[in-house]
C-alpha cells in the first residue's frame, strides 16, 4: 500500500504558522513580529487556552503521550516553563491538576514561528496547522501518578 506523500518541513512549518496567525485577532501583526525575529503575542480564549507548567514536568508528560495525541507545546528553558495549548473547556477539566496553571482568557502567549526559536523559546510539539490540541484528560493522566492515559475499551476496539 502506498503511503501518502509527506509534506516538506517548510510546508509543515508554514501550515503551523498560518494556523497560529489565524488564532490571533491580528494575523498581520503576528507575521510582522516573526519577520522582525521577535515573539508574537497571541491571546488565548477565542480558539484555545494555555496551561502552564514547569519544563521538567512537561518533558515527562510528553514521553507519556503518543505523538498523535499531542497538541502544540511551547517551552522556555531559561524560565523553566512550558505552555500547552489546550481546548477552551480545559480550564474546568484541569482545575485539580496541581502541576498546571490554566491561564485566563485573554492571556497572551509569546511565541516564535514553528520552525525557529526566538529569545530562547521553542516548540517542543509544533502546531501542524490542523488545529489539534492536547485533550485535557490525556494531559491530566500523563501528569498523574500512573502517567498514562488509556482510551475507554469501547474506543480501542
Features:
31% helix; globular; 157 residues; alpha+beta; 7 strands; two-stranded antiparallel sheet; 5-stranded antiparallel beta sheet; 6 helices
Shape: globular
- N- to C-terminal distance: 23 Å
Average of pLDDT: 89
Q: Per DSSP, what share of the residues sits in E-state strands of 2 or more residues?
A: 15-25%
Strand order of the largest sheet: 5-2-4-3-7
- Main beta sheet strand tally, sense and closure: 5 strands, antiparallel
**Which regions contain 5 or more consecutive residues with pLDDT less than 50?**
146-157
Number of strand segments: 7
Bin the helical content. 25-40%
Radius of gyration, in Å, reads 16 Å
Number of helices: 6
Look at the helices and sheets and give the structural class. Answer: alpha+beta
Topology as a string of helices (H) and strands (E): HHEEHEEHEEEHH
Oligomerization status of the protein chains = single chain
